[in-house]
Design goal:
9 helices, Arc Repressor Mutant, subunit A, homotetramer, Tetracycline Repressor, domain 2, DNA-binding
Chain lengths: 204, 204, 204, 204
DNA sequence: TATGAATGAGGATTCATTCAT
DNA sequence: CATGAATGAATCCTCATTCAT
């Protein structure tokens, strides 16, 4: 990505980059941003410090690669549920997606915990913001489609609240392991989200 | 006691500590955890590095003092609303408290932003956890009083979700300044929270 | 000089700065700019690397302090001769000053050699340029006083040539130690310089 | 020989070396000795670092090749004037040569500036010393021929002063671009040089 | 021969902390 | 108690050079 850095063309270098990002993730997870020195990452990757700088311009670029991988993996994991939800009734669709979201978070709990608790947000916020924006856009269109008469401002507000709520609660549920059954958690979360729809619940 | 001139030494010490914590807050807010060196804090406080170590064992103790102050200030700011809410109908009480919570966050937005975005959570989580626990306890008892028939597990779950949701959304609303009117935000948030209350009889 | 650096106020720190500049000069003289690492300078000064950065913002500031000292010492050494030359006949005055200049260079031959041969000029040129400008100004006024009818452009040209010639030849004579008697060298140099004085009326 | 197609390998090598030296000159000129890393030179030459080390033992050998080229080019450029000057009257010959010298310097101003200002002299002094020695030898014989009665020591002294003066002033004139007309500069320089001749100017 | 990935010692610099005054 | 000079381990990063392919 950066200027004069090597772009992995050979098979060997691709594996090296892989090892560095793996090592970056591991060291970040166990030591936090500050203790994760480039030398330690290099050592964990089994390469020399110089090699590391052949592929990444600086420490933050390694961190960026790790978060990139987490975010991309999460997005991929949730995509099928988003497609499956299309056309389903709101409650069912919501539940389906929330399930996938929570599963996607749980699958990356270690790294997410490392970032959330041990890396200053400014280091990775841009990447997470980008994902959140994408998710918000999709959500907006989904909701707008099923509530054509709602005012845009109301829709935006609902989406803002829903996206933030889901993001935070799934992460905290996955990391905090509170004594709450998974299903009950998802049910309640779905209820909260559905209840946010601008016009309120349909009359009985 | 007022008017008498005494304990000059202790009084002076108190002011010195005050200045150091002020400086710590300022430097933390503008530079983040890592760039906030003890030397810079000392300089901003107008004391020598040595003096700083006369009052605090290490850098993290200064950070702890700052977060302590934020948390205590917040708790004090919210307390009156909590007392005023007692005995009111649920919706009104909720709205009252949420208003105070958001105001409490907004009043400390600068420092909260500094911590949330620029300080690794591990540095301040214990103190925030303690406050959250207190708030959760109070909330549990409030809800339990108005829903005597609800199962404890359902209550705990609702409280967990409600507290986390309020915490996160008020902070993000205050920091992110989204284009959402304050009242609409609080209305929606109140609806979410109230909607969480367990309704049916305890599951068999 | 630089921002947050310590300004030596106590006697102790003044001595420390002195030791660092001494060490900088010594290491520079024996190893050149590139091999003169800050750690080596610190070691030679008998202080820790950190101490060095308490007084100098970076390596170049140390180099600047060394050249500053060389230049200031030289200027001081030549000043008396400049004053003594005032009012003397041109030949005598020239010879007097040239003698002092060569002596000033010889007294600092080691350091001058280090800079000229082992430090890239960009590191110290500004300081030397400033001195040369001062010398050129003084020279211009001296010559203008004794040749009131000369055209300014001619005077400037002569001064430019003379100053550059004296600078270079005295340095190379002092450093190269060619088999030329000191007096003969100075006589010839004086002849060259005096011969440069514009003679005829200003060009039409 | 021209027109035949052969020695393909050696021809390719020659071009590769050429490209490396070109690149070395360019990188040296724009970055100075220290910043001119072998990797950057290799990249600028369009070859791999490994290839570079197939032709040059180390970085300094590349620098040497660049200065060699500068010096050789200069010597070639001045040679015709030296031949043309033979047999001419001293003043005319001097002026002729000085003109060629200045032109030779001006034609290489960029690289000369790079070396003079950004490369420690120890890296290239030997090669320049060799040229200066050659020029001094030639000068000695020229002067000795026209002043057969002069003492060798006097001749040597004059040549030492003249060569150094011409070298320095032409370089500084070419690099510094002072507001001095080229002709006036050369006239004055010629006067200085001619005036150095051991017996003084011929009686009128 | 050419490649380019890899090396690793070494450099400049920072900063939490100590301690003589 | 306060000072501020001093510390030195640790950090990020560079670059001349090597070597398997």
């Amino acid at each position: 990505m950066a200027g004069t850095r090597r772009t992995p063309t050979q098979e060997r270098s691709r594996r090296t980059v892989e090892r560095i990002v793996d090592a970056g993730a591991a060291v970040l997870a166990e030591s936090g941003y500050h203790q994760a020195s480039t030398n330690r990452i290099a050592e964990a990757a089994g390469v020399s410090p110089g090699t590391l700088y052949g592929y990444f311009a600086d420490k933050d670029e390694i961190v960026a690669a790790v978060i990139e991988r987490v975010v991309d993996g999460f997005a991929e994991a949730v995509a099928p549920a988003l497609r499956a939800a299309a056309g389903r009734p709101v409650e069912e669709a919501t539940r389906l997606v929330l399930d996938a979201v929570l599963a996607g978070v749980e699958a990356r709990a270690d790294l997410i915990e490392a970032f959330v608790d041990r890396v200053p947000a400014e280091r990775y916020a841009p990447r997470v913001d980008a994902l959140r924006d994408r998710v918000s856009d999709v959500s907006y269109h989904l909701v707008a489609a099923s509530l054509p008469s709602a005012a845009p401002a109301d829709l935006e507000r609902s989406v803002w609240l829903a996206v933030r709520t889901v993001e935070h609660l799934t992460v905290r549920y996955a990391l905090g392991r509170p004594p709450i059954p998974r299903d009950a958690f998802l049910d309640d979360l779905a209820t909260m989200i559905v209840g946010l729809a601008p016009t309120g619940p349909p009359a009985p």
